[in-house]
Hints:
It is found in: Golgi apparatus membrane. It contains eleven helices and twelve strands.
Amino acid sequence: MAVARSLRRTSPITFVLASLLAIGFLVFLLSPSPSESTSSSARQRQEDAAENPLSPPTKPFKKATSLRKDGRVAPPPVEHYALNKLTSTSNPIANDERVLILTPLARFYQEYWDNLAKLNYPHELISLGFITPKTREGDAATAALQSAIAATQSGPIDNRFASVTILRQDFDPPIVSQNEKERHKISNQKVRRESMSRARNSLLFTTLGPSTSWVLWLDADIVETPSTLIQDLARHDRPILVPNCYQRFYDPNSKKMSVRPYDFNSWQDSETSLELASKMDPDEILLEGYEEMPTFRTLMAHLNEPSGDPDTIMELDGVGGTALMVKAEVHRHGAMFPAFAFYHLVETEGFAKMARRLGYFCWGLPNYLVYHYNE
Ligand code: GDP
Ligand code: MN
């Protein structure tokens, strides 16, 4: 491992290697015991496993034990991946398409995990990736996440996910408070969203493997989605597709539970927003949902019709990332989350712009709802 040794002081690479080893260890710990592997499902999973801990973590890693004649561990095998055979289609189950669910996670909500565990896409085709901040709160979230993973991955085999990766962020978050008011202050937005971009990019570039067909971004505070979320989104066969993110709340007027829009980052540009952007300094960004900065964009959040057709689809210029389905090729071809002003946009909205420049259109489902936790 001369390469690894010479790179030991380069922190991002050390960090990635350490994370990969940690995943390998976790997958090994949580992989089925030999007695269980007699079932055909378990056997298939064993055969499906990657042979080397440095293999992309979209496949579970099988601990290599093969020894050479001289008693040393055999070198890792060469794996061939035919990317031209990799599909992302409207019928992902029939085509065995692997989905990578990515979650930046600062707080752990059991409701998020329960909802994730209820997704009825075959779990053996789902890999999970998380990135948690290196703060006291991030430590607590990581610990809670690990117990949830341990419970699911040692439970019934069909509930287990193909692989799980947890990354610890290698940079400090710009604001420590996770308090909603503090998070949403306009003065905190640029640094906060640039930092979120770095977290998302680190997570994406560390976990996207050659067999990933779809990437589903799902925030850690999305606590309710249809269990058919993956199939429902894939069915539209769009490069980038975002459902409408709402929130349940108690309405004191009607004295009943009700719903309201939560995420305002899915929008169509307006003349005003384009005009505003054209007059900005290169490093300035346009934000959505702030009275101080009216953009007159068309917000998908306001276009929900409660009894409307859930298949209604609209084109978008900006997308939010609370739940966001992306064909893996969009990321693979280079669309990421700009941690800098990109056409005066950052993070998920900047991603939409970057994807557009690569030739991919963004779409939204105003009548298909997912729900954000209510603090
Ligand atoms: P909001 O709903 O737009 O206010 O954004 P959130 O604060 O909920 O952040 C979006 C997602 O990123 C959630 O899943 C958070 O748990 C997570 N998150 C927030 N801050 C950080 C951070 O500093 N690092 C990481 N890794 N995740 C974070
Ligand atoms: Mn949130």
